[in-house]
Design brief:
Length: 263
């Protein structure tokens, strides 16, 4: 009677599934905790780095298990498949971030007025690793101008008070947290700087925003600044925030200036 050797189950396949599953659970948990303010920003970034390492380790376990299955016919194909797929899903956002780091310049502070940027809110006790607002260097100005040509100030043929009201409407629509209430339009100073607190896309890291409204003869100028508190790269987030906000402001101001429809 011919005896066949018992097929072994490779342990690496199980480790691939367990490590990948843990990385996915940890990613969701830390994102939810940070979203609700239960995890500090710096700790959040460190945990994201650990998640990436765990997912990469899961892929290494899966590759080792696959070699065992291919060479010796070991069992564990389901575990290594689940582990590899979950790890790839976890690493997908990191791949997108890596692509944007390669595609966008190392900028984290974008302003429509490079010579005289609107002042940002002052952070009394900066946390470790937090960016400190500084004037852009000539090289950074050149990079911003070449990469984000649409991030420029807007000029409106509308009264100062009307533009202030329009800015307040767009701010409320975005839900950004104001550092101080917007003064009444009839009591607004010229120039008026409105400071707010926003969050970056997906990662929801803190972003400081400043909007400056000033009069220029019969027109009103609006300049805007958006700066990430953490990270050397903003991945294009700040420029997109400025362009989108000013585009909505254009619609709001034009809507206010439009005459009412005839009855």
């Amino acid at each position: 009677m011919t005896e066949f050797p018992e097929r072994r189950t490779t342990r690496a396949a199980g480790w691939a599934r367990r490590t990948a599953t843990f990385s996915a659970v940890l990613l969701v948990s830390v994102w939810v905790g940070h979203h609700f303010g239960l995890v500090e920003h710096l700790a959040y970034l460190w945990v994201l780095a650990i998640v990436a390492l765990l997912a990469a380790a899961a892929l290494i376990f899966a590759a080792f298990a696959f070699s065992k299955l291919w060479q010796y016919g070991d069992l564990g194909g389901r575990d290594l498949t689940v582990g590899a797929l979950v790890a790839l899903v976890v690493l997908a956002p990191y791949g997108a971030v890596a692509y944007r780091i390669a595609a966008y310049p190392p900028l984290h502070d974008i302003s429509t007025d490079l010579d005289d940027p609107p002042p940002l809110p002052v952070v009394e006790q900066p946390a470790p690793g937090m960016n400190v607002p500084v004037a852009p260097t000539p090289g950074e100005q050149r990079l911003q101008g070449e990469t984000y040509p649409l991030a420029t100030g807007h000029r409106y043929d509308a009264p100062f008070d009307a533009v202030v009201d329009a800015v307040g409407t767009v701010l409320r629509k975005h839900g950004w947290q104001l550092t101080a209430p917007i003064p009444a339009a009839d009591a607004a100073q010229d120039p008026l700087v409105i400071a707010a607190y926003a969050r970056s896309f997906v990662l929801e890291l803190p972003v400081d925003v400043a909007i400056r409204i000033s009069s220029d003869d019969d027109a009103t100028l609006v300049d805007m600044r958006s700066a990430s508190r953490y990270g050397r790269y903003d991945l294009g987030d700040n420029a997109a925030r400025i362009v989108d906000f000013l585009a909505e402001l254009d619609q709001q101001v034009n809507g206010q200036a439009a005459p009412p429809p005839a009855e």
